[in-house]
Design brief:
This protein has three helices and no strands. The protein has 61 residues and is mainly alpha-helical. The radius of gyration is 17 Å and the shape is rod-shaped.
Length: 61
């Protein structure tokens, strides 16, 4: 992976540590971007579930 690719990934808020780790494992820039998107979607889902859980707990108490 060249420096231009690394800079693009850094602009997407992917840490340099993660970039190095994933590129050593053979992931391409596109695959790293897709991993980042999936992780963001998972975090959003977990947050929504936490909010629903808190509301249900509040309603049932």
């Amino acid at each position: 992976m060249n420096q231009k690719d690394v800079n693009e990934l850094l602009e997407l808020c992917i840490s340099e540590k993660d970039i190095k780790k994933l590129s050593k494992k053979g992931y391409t820039k596109t695959e790293i971007i897709n991993i980042k998107k999936k992780n963001d979607e998972i975090k959003k889902g977990v947050t929504i579930l936490d909010v629903i859980s808190e509301i249900l707990t509040w309603l049932l108490s």
